[in-house]
Amino acid sequence: MNTATTSPTATATLSRTRRSPLPVLLAGIFLIVLDFFVVNVALASIQADLRASDTAVEWIVAGYGLTFAVPLLGAGRLGDRFGRRRVFTVGIGAFTLSSAVCGFATNATMLVAARLVQGAAAALVSATVLALIGVIYTGAAQARAISLYATTMGVAAASAQLIGGVLVSADVAGLGWRSVFLINVPIGLSALLLTPRLIPESRADRPGRTDVVGLLLVSVGLTALVLPLLEGRQQGWPPWTWLALAAVPALLGGFLLRQRSLAGRGQQPLLDPRLFRSRSFSAGLAAQLALWCGQASYFVVLALYLQQGRGLSPLRAGLVFTILAGAYLIASAKSPTLAARFGRLTVTGGALILAAGHLALLLATITDGVGGSVFALAPGLALTGAGMGLCIPALTGIVLGNADPQQSGAVSGALTTVQQVGNAVGVAVIGLIFFPALSSGYDRAFELSVAALATLLIVLAVLTVALPSNRNGESHAVGA
User: Fold this and answer.
1) Which of 147, 163, 196 is at the close of a domain?
2) The pTM is what?
3) What are phi and psi of 403, to 5 degrees?
4) Does residue 465 share a domain with residue 323?
5) What whole-number percentage of the chain has pLDDT above 90?
6) SS in 3 state form for 114-148?
């Protein structure tokens, strides 16, 4: 296990100023979570202004998730070797610069390219924030910092749609949708100025080597999966799309074989294959993938249905999202207590409530189409938010709670990586349902999409049977 060292100079500076670095770290995590969701209510405006294709709209969301997912496997190792503060600074700097490029993009290609850079930068920030909290804080202070970290992520995700709606509708200086990206710039610059003053440098005493070959295999494998799913429909499914999809099992299988080989030689793999010996880990990753395939994709189709279909302004669409956000915050606060009492049944129940929310939206849309009162959507949105709030914390808690404490960092990293992969793949797959159906209207496209998402959640509910059934704090360590 690597041990961390902290720069004496930085520590002395921290002691003299007595200023906590936590606000800077939380600002970083707030930005990268916010930016995943804030763009949803701006998609309609972006598509109209840049004359972006449906595929480009998908790339704006899925591309961020894809480039967020892949570097996560190696970003923590970079912090161990080169310094966590340094990697955090590079991540914030790249995120701020790419946000500015997004804000001033003159065409869809430029915007998508900048979003890809944003995702990679977000991975550097995400991987180092928790590591820095673990090094800087101890005991009760560390527990409080982690709690604030989790709260910040929840608030960013829940408030993003409303913030985006306010920014786009305010149209400050005629910026419109561009403001959802440019708002990151002053926050990012402030974080860059404060980081060397408030955050002490730290690195591992014996940092492991980064498996570059493994990173290439998983990067190419995931790209070979997502790229044809996004581009294939528009290009008429040329031969390269099928060849790419056919290569995915070999590429990802090669990645897993390499990880096993590295572990067998006593080296440090990006993903320890011994983790898969635990049912809680394997089942947890499968459930995580199923859950998150339906998150970003749902927000995208809901935002387009509300604005392009029902004709709501970005602000009104953002306000509709607050119904879901409020239910999410309430349910997520109760989720840990329920999970401690009912174990995996909390995830099962959450998945079924989430599916019921999608079915309620399906019925409301069948009844009203793109007309009627938006309040008819409220029951479905509330159920959807409650289901998300129950599932997300409970699933993460169950998997981590059954992990060996020595492997909790690796398990957490794997869960986060699969989360982002699910977001990217989900947008690509649901896009294959939603966009072709637009010829029959936004209501029909939305109906088919939420029906597919409800089916996916039934699959998730079935997968939870394989999760550990422990309750009331019982746990079984991963790899035990």
Assistant:
1) 196
2) 0.86
3) -95, 145
4) yes
5) 62
6) HHHHHHHHHHHHHHHHHHHHHHHCCHHHHHHHHHH
